[in-house]
Design brief:
Elements: H1 7-17, E1 30-36, H2 40-51, H3 56-67, E2 73-90, E3 93-102, E4 107-117
Antiparallel strand pairs: 1-2, 2-3, 3-4
Length: about 130
């Protein structure tokens, strides 16, 4: 007797294989807080400053001055719908950026995490 996989199992397996979680497809708002920027490029610039050793406030101010507007700021806990997750490599650094649509304004803002560097401090011959 041969068993066939259930449609729910296949859907879950395909979602995991594609690198997405089932919750990524949900329109349910999440409670978020922290530093958010108005554009993905500004969020990457913000995270580059963090990776360089700046504090969150200094990094946000540096990006805001460069953009000529208040684009990066700290948000108190607010309801937002997760929209996109992307991995970005910039200047040898690896970041995960996420966009959220804040409610009730329906404005998209970006946040992210610094993963690490693609640069090696050891020379190949030292390994």
């Amino acid at each position: 007797m041969q068993r066939s996989a259930s449609p729910l199992f296949l859907g879950t397996a395909l979602a995991v294989i594609a690198g997405w979680s089932i919750s990524a497809f949900s329109d349910a708002p999440a409670r978020v807080k922290g530093y958010f920027c108005g554009a993905k490029s500004e969020q990457v610039a913000y995270m580059q400053r963090l990776a360089a050793g700046d504090s969150e406030e200094i990094a946000a101010n540096t990006v805001n001055k460069s953009a000529g507007k208040q684009t990066c700021a700290y948000f108190l806990p607010a309801d937002a719908i997760p929209v996109k997750d992307q991995v970005v490599m910039s200047g040898g650094l690896v970041f995960k950026v996420q966009s959220f649509v804040f409610l009730p304004e329906k404005v998209e803002r970006w946040t992210g995490t610094y993963f690490g560097s693609m640069h090696s401090k050891s020379k190949y011959g030292d390994i």
